[in-house]
Structure formats: C-alpha cells, structure tokens
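--- STAGE predict ---
source: upstream dedup step, 1 unique chain passed
mode: sequence only
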Amino acid sequence: MSSDQDIISFGTNAVYEGFWHNRDRGRILGATLTLRDSRAIPLVAALAIIVGLAGNRSWHTSRLLWHSWLHTQDSDKIAVRQNRRKEQVILRNSETAGGATVGFIEMWFEIGIVRTIRECSPKSIFLLLYAVGHWLSFIALGVLVSQIVVGKFVVSKTLPTCGQWLPRPVTEDPQSDQVYRELTINLTIDAENYVRSCYPQGGSQGILECNKFLTRSFSSTTEEEVPCPFQDTACLPDANSAVILDSGNITFSQLGFNTKYGKDLSINRRSTCATSPEALVDPVDMRYFSFYKDNETLEDVDMLINGWPNRNSESYKLLHFYIPFGELLDPAFLPTPYTDISLILMQHMGILYREAQDDPWFSVHRPIDKFGNDTTLTPEATAYYVADYFLNIISCNEQYRFCSSSTQQCTEFHGLFQGDLLSAGNYTTLIGANDYTDKGKPVDFQLVILLLEMVMQYTALPLSIASRGGDVLQASRFLQDGFLNRLSNKQWILELEHWFLVALSRLQLSVFNTIERPTNLDDTRAYNTWTKDSERSTLLILCGRIKFVDPNHTSLSTFGLIMILVFSGVLMVGSLIALCLPSIPWINRWRPIADWKRDDVLGLLEKTRDEVRNIFSEAGSQWSPITRIL
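--- STAGE serialize ---
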C-alpha cells in the first residue's frame, strides 16, 4: 500500500539545486540559491543565529566606545558623576544590549523617578536610547532573515527527457493516431481539471493547493456585441452579435520562461466567436450537413456528421472542427484578414426544457405537450419546450499575437496554425532594431517564439472539448433524465469562456510539460521531437530554463545571503579588535582603557578584596579565612 510519502510531485526530480540566475529580478537581485526544504530550513535558522551572535558582538564593540565616552566629565554634580559611574559598570558587565537596557532601568528605579529626572544627563538618555535601539534592531534583523526566502519557485534542470513528446510515425507504430488522441484528450482533461480546481472563474474552493505553475491562473476578458468576424450573414441574430474572448498580454515569464526578454515580451490569445445559422452549412436533410464547398467535401467529416444519433437523444451531442486551411471553407466563414477557424456544432433535439430560452446557440421556443406532440395550435397544452433547430453552430476566428512592453508594439494577429513570426520585421517590432542588428538574433527570443508557435495550435477551442461529448458543456450540470432545470440567457458565452480558460491552461501545461517526459507516457509509443527532429533540436537550449513552483524546495536570495554573512562577519571581526585593544601595552596605559579593565566584574571583586584587606590591616584585625572569600 502506498502512503502520502510515496507520492512525488511531478517536476520534483527536475529541480535544479544550487545557484542560478532569475532573469526577472535583475543581475544582482536575481542571483538565487535553490535547496531542498530539509537543507534550506536549517540554513535560514543558522543565519538567524549568526545575526543574533553578530548583534551580541556588535554590542561588545559599541559598549567600549560608550564606556570611553562616559569617561569624559561634563558635569560637576556629584550625583551625576555617581550615576555615570554606575552606567559605566553596567555597560562593562552587560553581555547584551537587552541586559544593559534592563540594568539601566533598574538603576533608575532604585534612584527614584524624581531624582532620575533631576539628575539625568543627555548622555544617559542617549545611552538608554541606543541600547534599546540596538536591542530591537537586531531582534528585527533576526526576524527579517526569513526575507531572504524568495519563494518556492525553482528552475528546471536539464534532463535527457526534456522536450515535446509526440506519437511515433505511422511507419513505426500503426497505432500512432490512437496515441495522438490519447495525448490530446489527457492534456485536455488535465487542463480542465486544473481550471475547475485552481482558476477563480472555474469555481475553485481552494481545496487543492494548485502550487505548480509559476502563475496560478490567467484571467480573460469578454467583450460582447462586437462586429461579426465573418460575413454578416454568418452571425446570429445580427451583424453586431459576436463576442471577443481575450487573454490580455501574458508575459513569457508568467508562462515560466527564464529568459532575457521574459518580462518584456508577451503573448496575446484571442477568439472572436458568433452563433451562425443552420442554413449556412447547406443541409441536405435533417441528418446530413457539409460546411465545405461542394467540390471540396471531405468524406470523413461528412460521415461524422451523418453518424449522429437520432434527434430523440436525451443528452447534448457535440461536434467540433479546427480548420487552419480556409480555402476549403464556404466564403461566408472567411474572415478578413484570414486566420484560423473553429466550428462547434451542437444537437439537443431530445432534451426537454421547462422554459423557453432566448440564448442564440441553445435557442429553445418550440412548445410540446407532455406526450411530445407539437402544441403550436393549442398553447394551453404546453408542458415543455424543445430546440428550434436540429443543428446549432458557433463559429470562431482564432488568433494570437506577440507584444513588447519595451517597444510598445505588437505583431499582427495570426492564426494559431500560422507561423513565420521570426521575420526581421517582427524582430525589430518586439526587441528593437539595436538588439537585432548589433547582436544578431537573440537565441532566447528566437527559441521561445519558436516553441510558442508550435504549441499555440493546441489552444484552439475545439481541443478544449476534445471529442468528449456533450458532458463537457456547463449546461450539462443542470441536465437530469433528459430535463434541463435552468439555463442562462447567455449560456453560449459561459460555455465559450470556460473553453477559453481551458485553452489558456493547455498553454501553461504545454510549456510545463517540456521539463521532462509526461508521467506514465510509454516511450516505446512516443518520441522526443527535440532530440529526434533536426529542425527542433535547437530547442534543447530551453532545457533548464523553465521556472515553476515545487513544494519540496525553497529558493533563497543569494544577494541577501551574502549581505548577512558579510554584515555579520564585519561585526564579529570588529568585536575581536575591540577585545584585543586592552591587551596592547601602550593602549593599556590609556586612562579610558584602564577604567574599562577596572570596571570588569572580576576587577571590581579584586578591588573590593584590596579595600577590605586594608580596612582589616588598619584596624589591626586578623585576616580570617572568611574575609578571604571576598
């Protein structure tokens, strides 16, 4: 039986332990040390102890200076001089600033509040304030040692399995297509589970820690009532009824890339979607549709649509198509300028709705009685409502672009399957002409762009569905025994927003999964494209450059670590100098140093012994063993 200790978090074995440079924090502050928690926690505790010792040694140095300063007389009052003498003794014999502070307060209470106010000198006030300040300062510094812990984020190390894993060619594995489908649907399931568990928009209740990605979740914005991205006839109910789903600018750093331009460069994912009329797909009958041109019909697609269950099914049926080659499409679906198109088709004729629905995609207004008969002629017999159309369509224009915060410019929007973003024009748009012409093509920039071009096609909205049927609809949560209990008037937008977030999660996973071979992936059925394909072999440079969060490791600021050690070392060396000063013969004759040695507790004891011996000698008394104790 396995235990919780047997569970190893994905990526834990891919963590680089040691010193590395976090490019997001600059050259100095970016110096980072990553250790396992079992080593990092004792190190931080040891640093706190070192700071405490440094504070102690710092007080040893400063108390000598204060003792010498108090040696100078600035008052003729006997009471003030007596108090000064007491303060010198307390200074000399207090090992810590806290002990000195308590000693001063006790002395003043013994003298009395009134006498203290009357006899207190400015030096005494400064001395007390310094002791209190020194004490509290090093307590605070000991606490602030924990601030060198910059977080649980780490950087990957270079592993032999780093890269992108795809099914082996059909020539090597006849089941290559099945492996591809398996990888695709598993990635989609992982992405959707992550959205439901970790994205605020997914209804996360914080049950899971979700502590793996450098950025826990990405937000998106929805803009409604925008112009149709296709010809006006391709959008319902009118030409200004489309919606835009936009991710905003997601920096390379937020995706986990530890590269030079990570904070400056970003990617912007956008989908512009609209509901489309059934007639646009040219129905031949109620069971057969084709949205391609007549002379370009693809038989496999027609067969999929023709093979749908009958209209009386009590569940939602979904079909989806991602179409990167628009020349096959009906002209009504072609956006200008052209980018990739996604089509999502839904059938729900057999579902009974308790109320009519105005949602343009679900569109439910046809009344029936409890026996399933049309009640158009007898409205009073209406018991339920059913879908208006056999086929319901969402059409999306899928795009993305890159932006730069340093040049304040962006590339043009491109389709998800379209690349060619490494042109000289885009280089200068994103990183500036100087970096491009003077330094050549920066490797970091080039490789990150190349990798993102490869993974963006996997963020198409149909892949958020991944042939999993109607259960992926948010509306299915309210479907029971063929009856839909409730539905939002903008349910189609809610569905799109969820699929869009899943697409963003797929983007996170696609980058993260390059760290090492995905768990439980059989390498006999898949291969690493970075090591096998010469065109992608340059991407191996990105191995060891992906940041993520690992609960079993802690990253410390190297700059903070060095500052603590240097600061503590200087104070300790200084205290040793102060310790050795009284031992130097020519300094030993200096009056403040002589008084410093005199006020030591052992020196005071010796002085008391001499005074008692003299008293007994003058009185002619016997020097007894009891007096020797003194």
